[in-house]
Write a structure and sequence with these properties.
358 residues, mainly alpha, 14 helices, 82% helix, globular
């Protein structure tokens, strides 16, 4: 390879990297505008089967669109009401639980010191002051309430964008056929991507719902306070890869430890481990197939990247967004190799059902 060709390849690589930096900076700066659009897109993909079912049963598009949006709005309203009511109840009881937890922690540390186990050199007791912990918890809860309020304020915008997307999507296939012809590859590319994204989101939502319902029942069976809240948290956090199930289990286990002691808290933790192992390692790979898999490293990096880019909502959408990118790469002959690199390694993939036709 000549010096000029090497220089040209280097320049091309630098241009690509500079373009990526500009795109990422634009995504971060445009988060207030882009996040409602992304949420509306995912809601549209999930609700389009209902719209299509209504139209197949001879419901005209305006009425089918209205019924679909009303159904989505009702679900979002019910979910928001459950979240706000349960979080408010827990916020009132949280300081008392925190004080009891601090007392238990101090008792445990003092018992260690009574056995001549020196711990004060590496663990300061000041952070275990109840007032300090309650103030810190109040700050966390305040930030959570502000986040919920911000999300609720953008629901109307998300629904409006979703209406436009559904109305456009209902006739988009015919529009593409008129523009490119019935056998054009652009139509196949578009329908292939939307179909696979829709299937992934449907399966992920169903798996998350199953996880939330089972853990809600398990918490209620063990008489854990606020079982509905922990089921809702498990449903939402199941969208967060790697650490989502761990984060969802921390608060209910601590509350159970304070209320019922170590034995029942251990039972609750075992239930979380069992449900997340069965759902995450058995049911989800079987229903999704190997094609929808991502390597553990890619999952973790996507969590860090989208969380840094768009905050908590980016963490929730990290895997769906990465899967959309992977599906788009799979449908591009020149970029398919990159989609293969995002998949699990040979050892991991061998343990999953090879449902390439999924």
């Amino acid at each position: 390879m000549s010096a000029e060709s090497k220089r040209g390849e280097g320049t091309k690589t630098l241009l690509v990297m500079a373009s990526l930096v500009v795109v990422v900076a634009g995504l971060k700066a445009g988060a207030p505008v882009l996040l409602p659009v992304v949420l509306a897109f995912f809601l549209s993909v999930l609700s389009f089967p209902l719209l299509h079912w209504l139209m197949r049963h001879r419901v005209r598009l305006p009425f089918a669109l209205l019924l679909t949006v009303m159904a989505v709005a009702a679900l979002l309203t019910a979910f928001g009401f459950l979240i706000s009511s349960t979080v408010s109840e827990f916020a009132l009881a949280a300081p008392a639980y925190m004080e009891q937890l601090v007392v238990k922690a101090r008792t445990f540390l003092e018992s260690l010191e009574a056995r001549d186990i020196e711990i004060t050199d590496w663990l300061a007791l000041e952070p275990l002051d109840p007032g300090f912990m309650v103030d810190r918890l109040g700050g966390i809860l305040g930030g959570t309430v502000l986040g919920i309020t911000s999300a609720v304020s953008s629901v109307t915008l998300v629904l409006i964008i979703m209406i436009c997307m559904l109305a456009e999507g209902a006739g988009l296939r015919k529009k593409l056929q008129r523009a490119f012809g019935k056998g054009d590859t652009a139509i196949q590319y578009f329908t292939g991507i939307t179909g696979e994204v829709q299937r992934y989101l449907e399966v992920k939502t169903m798996v998350s719902l199953m996880t939330g319902v089972v853990l809600w029942g398990w918490a209620a069976l063990l008489d854990v306070p606020f079982p509905l809240l922990w089921g809702l948290v498990a449903f939402v956090f199941n969208y967060i890869p790697v650490i989502g199930s761990i984060l969802a289990a921390i608060l209910p286990v601590l509350v159970t430890l304070v209320q019922h002691g170590f034995g029942r808290a251990a039972l609750l933790a075992l239930g979380y481990l069992a449900v997340n192992f069965l759902v995450g390692n058995l049911l989800e790979p079987i229903w999704m197939g190997r094609r929808f898999g991502l390597s553990t490293l890619v999952v973790f990096l996507s969590l860090v990247f989208w969380g840094w880019l768009w905050g908590p909502i980016g963490m929730l959408l990290s895997v769906p967004l990465t899967m959309v990118i992977k599906i788009m790469l799979e449908h591009s002959p020149k970029m398919r190799w990159l989609a293969v690199l995002l998949e699990p390694g040979p050892g991991t993939a061998a343990a999953q059902p090879a449902r390439e036709s999924a």
